[in-house]
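Figure 2 data, in text form.
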Amino acid sequence: MKKFISVFLCLILILSAVTVAFASSGNFSKETLERATKIAKQIEAEGIVLLKNEGDVLPLADKKVNVFGMGSVEFALGGGGSGSVSSESEITFFEGLKNAGIEYNTELYDTYNNWASNHKIEETGQGLVDMLLGTVNGMLKQEMPYSEIGTEVIGRAQGFSDTAVLVITRTGAELFDLKVEEIRLTDVERDMIDNLDNDFENVIIIFNTCNILQMDWLDNYSHVKAAMLVWTPGEVGSDSIGRVLTGEINPSGKLTDTVAYDIYDYPSTKNFGSFSYSDTPLAFFVNYQEGIYVGYRYFETFAPDKVMYPFGYGLSYTDFDWEVTDFVSGSETIKVSVKVTNTGSRAGKDVVEVYFSAPFYPGGIEKSAIELAGYAKTKLIEPGQSDTVSVEFRVADMASYDENTAEAWVLDSGTYQIKVGHTVRDFEAVYNYEVPTRQVFKNDDKTGTEIKNLFQDVKGDIDYLSRTRNNAINIPSNHSAPDGVKNCDVRPEPATEGTVPNTGVVYEDGTIMLADVAADETLWDKFLDQFTVDEMINMIAESGYKTAGLDRLGVPETVDNDGPASVKGPGGLMYKDSGLAYPGAFCLASTWNDELAEEFGKSIGDEANDIGTNIWYAPACNLHRNPMGGRNFEYYSEDPLISGKMASAVTKGAQSKGIIVTVKHFVCNDQETNRLIRGVFTWTNEQAMRELYLEPFEIAVKEGEAKGIMSAYNRIGTTWCSGSPALLKDLLRKEWGFDGFVVSDAYIDTNGSGYMDPVLAVYARNDALLTSLWYFAEKIQITTNMRQTYEKDPIGFGNALRTCVYDLCRIKMQTSAFDPTKTTGHRGEGRVLSAEYGELAKKTSPSSSGSESGSAQSPSSASGGSSGTKAAGYEKGVKTGVTGGSKLLVTGVIAGLSLAVIIPSAVVIKRRREED
């Protein structure tokens, strides 16, 4: 056992040598931290979901409790990976109890604390290393057997209090999905609950988790009277947990996922995990066979009896009475107003949820039995007082995507039911809305662009779940790879039409700086003409936790950093220091409070400004396709609407402070398993893509006006998301009207030509590669690869490079890193002295007479140039080879192999400790 841990730590030290020199400390103002602390506590307070409260055991009448469970002393603040959190001054679970005036059994605390100390890998004080250790510690967490507590300690505990609080902890992490056995109780946990049920009158379960667990056992015990989901509370959220237990805070959180009785009740479980093609090496796939029927869409349509706690569910310590005061339905919008009155004895908040049920016609467009249309949260309502809230949505929002015939959004004729309720199945009022004739929405509501199918190649040969056939979900049995899998990652043929863009232009009257362009946007083309090919390549490739700058043109370097639960300091993963650790996104979404989400975004923006971060790698809005998703704690919900609304609100808040967000991971990055190994081949139909997986991003772009997108590791069909023109050009920019930049997920490709092909990324208008710790090893391979492609395709790839640089420069101008005073005042009106490639290079070559500046054209197209042949000056391109890069490559391989061994080592250690 010790040997395995020693090997693991030695491997960690390889990376620690890289990170030790970069330790840094932040510089947050007092006002920023006070605001952040207040908001973080509020998120936890409103995000806690009270699941069960028999006999009103909560709030606590007697503020003396016995606390059980290893999670109580190893309370999970957050998950692992980019969404990890680090804190040296967190409010522990026990400090939260103490702050709320709850007295806990210190003997029991000492017993658990001592046991934990003997079963923990110590931290090193280095950011990346401790992040990895935190992930591993969470995976290795063991529960102390009840028998090891000792009968004498239990006897004294019974005398101390008749109430037992059991903390059940599960962590999630980037790169790791949970297994079925981790969603369920372990044998040790079940034995503990059996004993607690026998030994104590009142047992309260605290779920400190990154995921929804299987909870079917909750109703099997007579003394397990209360349960609540507190999620991962971040650095200060435990203070709110204690106050919820005492009743100082009334819980108002609602579930954003369905809690089924069994993990196998979820339709995606059979198609979640590792599946590979037998005839193609390292080709892994996942089938979204459930189609649009994810979460409550499945359960309310096919299996309502398999639900333990429905979507939207959450209890309160008080009672509310509802009165629908207004229902206004027009041809374009529907608005519902509800007066909520507190009829109980404690102040509290409530959530009004509005759903719709669309008419379904067998053989027509697939539709779930019900969908969320909108929601609103009340203010804090004192006993006897009321608050009126309104929910408004568009009639067009009830349309379904028809990929089979119309290739458009379709609102079928018939009766639509508008349901005003407390959950997805508990309604106060139901109204009918008639659509007399079928309506087809063929053009995008923002840009007017014609809508058409873009992802038919993603569908695959899958028998998708259907209400018409009610076919079964099956574990994949056909493991032969489609032809497209065997022949993917094909680059486009060199362009034969168009012009080679000008590069390396030097003007007689001086350099045009980026600040000059900010003052006069007609200078864009002349400004971009000044970039050399190598400068464009480097700016795109050197974008790990920054976007590279270019001093000679006044282009600033930005500081870009993780993550969804906090904002890290300069240097990304290489820095331990970070802003306040907030409760996870799962908790934030459970507040159902868009205003609070926007305040969270503003607070993140303030912190980022304090420590000099310009671009934030967040928010993340993939879906909870399955409870076993390793990064569900980073994402909001199984539902795309609330996911999009939360991401939009966070985006508005952060960008109002001048921070650029990158909404991630675009798209279908809903599991961690195999996503890094050639990019897991993700198969789904276009209706599911548009109605579920794309919708949160669409809302963030259109309503939140997000300026950044992070593309995903996985493939949609056979195409790497970062290299998909259909996704990043046709849909994101052309159809939705996105006006920002796209960065890849962490780029790991030391040979520069694997599935993460930088060339494909540039062609697809993925503007930046998030090259990371081992970029020093990747640089020669990546840049050479791109340079050689330019030489083969100076028109197509040359213009693609130029467009990406244009996107990057435009986004930099919107950050605090940009200095608008660094202007020269030159406009490129004098003679062009020289140029690298393009039409201007021909005119300034020794064989040419005279020089003139090119005319301004669209920044996204070439400025001047020649048709399909090599431009003058083309032959003088630098033929950069890999000579001299061998040492860097070897070093990079070592670093890559180190990480590749670290991760499996964690799994090995986990298994060994379970065996021990």
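Caption note: The CA atoms of residues 696 and 838 lie 42 Å apart.
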